[in-house]
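Hello again, I could really use a second opinion on something today. I owe you a coffee for this, so here goes:
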Amino acid sequence: MNEFEKNVQTKRNDFIDSAVGFVVVFGFFTTIFVVAQAIDLIW
């Protein structure tokens, strides 16, 4: 084992971080889409 495998900075599950990142990005693009559809509907 190398030094980085012995001395890890965090032992959190990577799946949780990945899921949170996916939800945040998905929510961001969904918000952009909804705003664009609302503007298109108004004009």
Summary: The chain has a mean pLDDT of 92. The chain has two helices and no strands.
